[in-house]
Amino acid sequence: MRRPCCVRPGIDRPFMSQIVLLASIVIRLLAFGWSVVLVRRFRDWRLVLLSAVLALMVVRHTLNSRWVRDEWPGIADLASALPAILVSLGLLIAVILLGRMIDDYRAALDRASASTSALAENRTRLQFVVDQAPVVLWALDNAGVFTLSEGRGLEALGLEPGEVVGRSVFEVYEGNTDVLNDARKALSGHRARSLARVGDRVFESRQRPLLDPSGKVVGVLGVAADVTARERAMSELEESNQALTDAYDSTLEGWVGALDLRDRETEGHTRRVTRVTVELARRLGIPGEDLVHLRRGALLHDIGKIGIPDSVLSKTGPLDEDEWELMRQHPVWAHEMISRVGFLQPALDIMYCHHERWDGRGYPRGLSGESIPLSARVFAVVDVWDALRSDRPYSESWDEDRVADYLREQAGGHFDPAVVEAFLNMLAEGSVQEA
Ligand code: C2E
Ligand code: SIN
Ligand code: SIN
Ligand code: FE
Ligand code: FE
Questions:
Q1: What CATH superfamily classification does 234-428 receive?
Q2: Ligand 3 centre and the CA of 429: distance in Å?
């Protein structure tokens, strides 16, 4: 037996039906409100339409209810027209939705086919790069077995792409420490970079470990470029550079011979002071790359004496005032001559400053203390040491102890005390070779 909607026996009917009606309106309004919330969240026009339909259903249902029929029959007539409107609206929505779905589907299909062909194109391009790259590309698994071996660089090794895949790097490159050291390093999780020799080729190789997210080594990726031609050019350049340096230095040797001859220098003075100065400079921590210039400076220290007449240079007695005037110019003349010779410019300090004194009473500029270049301070000690222990045209040689006493006495006067101390230690150790 059907019971009329919203009517419960024993309860005041119109009142109850109003309560139930109100409740149903509230619930439907909540449904309407929820659809509005959904619209705001998804910004979807289909939800807007759904909300409109829901709203119309709520209105229609409300107008069509028994309570409205009873109270305002005219309005109920209006409500009876609503289903037809709803059906039309539903159809319209269905058609629009279908159109939109077809459009969406077609766009998705287009996108998919575009990305498929882009993918294929990328793959082709990548394969081309891998095939044609003038390098060797390879990968190892974590046991050192090749999983990939590609690239034009393989030709130089006499290998086909993929030929070594499946074999261990330790077997393929057995005995090649260059390659295997790098592989071991990469397999233990470090980047490796080196020049590796394979047969008669030289490769610049880089290997890096492949790590899983936990940091465990799962393999190695390597790339190597054939740099044989470059290495050959470099070593030729080095050789010709060395030949040039040798030519410079033998030219210097020739000059030194001519200078010593003219200056009536004791046999071997220049070579001796050069060797001892280089040794002392090394002890004092002058860097290796400066020593080559220091050596050239020492060899040429008195080149300025070319400007001094023989009569003065070979004079047996003491020099007079005019002669000293000339003699004090020899470092200046050296500076004028040599400052135009590019490769000797860094060697000028000794030539220009070897007669400066620590106390400032030297010549030609009267520099003092650390404003005198270190190489010249070192050289001055050795030069005087060797002059005193040799016969000069103007003085007899002194014995070793007297020379050492003189140097000690002049520490802080003529000489840099730190240099004197280092030199006396060197003498005491007997590490200064005679000859
Ligand atoms: P040099 O013969 O190569 O001497 C280099 C330096 O060693 C001298 O620089 C001086 O500091 C030191 N030395 C050489 N002999 C003696 C010496 O008997 N006693 C002392 N205390 N030090 C000595 P200096 O004095 O600036 O001389 C520069 C150059 O002038 C010398 O080069 C030498 O060619 C010339 N010269 C110096 N004194 C005389 C001299 O009395 N007669 C002549 N003919 N030439 C001298
Ligand atoms: C959504 O965008 O996740 C749902 C909205 C819709 O397409 O109806
Ligand atoms: C030099 O460097 O040529 C001097 C060393 C020597 O032969 O005594
Ligand atoms: Fe000198
Ligand atoms: Fe000298």
A1: Hypothetical protein af1432 (1.10.3210.10)
A2: 20
Q: Give the DSSP letter of residue 168.
A: B
Choose the residue to mutate in 37, 44, 53 for probing ligand 2, maximizing ligand atoms within 8 Å of C-beta.
44
At residue 356, φ and ψ (nearest 5 deg) are -75, 155
Ligand nearest to the CA of 276: 3
pLDDT for position 52: 72
Q: How far apart are CA 193 and CA 189, in angstroms?
A: 13
pLDDT in tens, 182-238: 999 999 999 999 888 888 889 999 999 999 999 899 999 999 998 999 899 999 999
pLDDT tens digits, residue range 117-142?
888 888 888 888 878 878 899 999 99
E runs forming strands in 283-380: none
CA 245 – ligand 4 centroid, Å: 26
What's the CATH code, domain 133-226?
3.30.450.20
Ligand 3, pocket-test mutation among 252, 270, 272, most atoms within 8 A of CB? 272
CATH 3.30.450.20 region(s) of the chain?
133-226
With beta carbons less than 8 A apart as the criterion, state whether 301 and 375 touch: no
Q: Give start-end residues of each CATH 1.10.3210.10 domain in the chain.
A: 234-428
What distance in angstroms lies between residue 368's CA and the mean position of ligand 5's atoms? 20
CB burial string 51-88: b at 16+ within 10 A, e below: beebbebbebbbbbbeebeeeeeeebeebeebeeeeee
pLDDT grade for 1, boundaries at 50, 70 and 90:
very low
The angle at the Cα of 222, spanning 216 to 223, to the nearest 5 degrees, equals 155
**Whose Cα sits closest to atom 6 in ligand 2?**
44
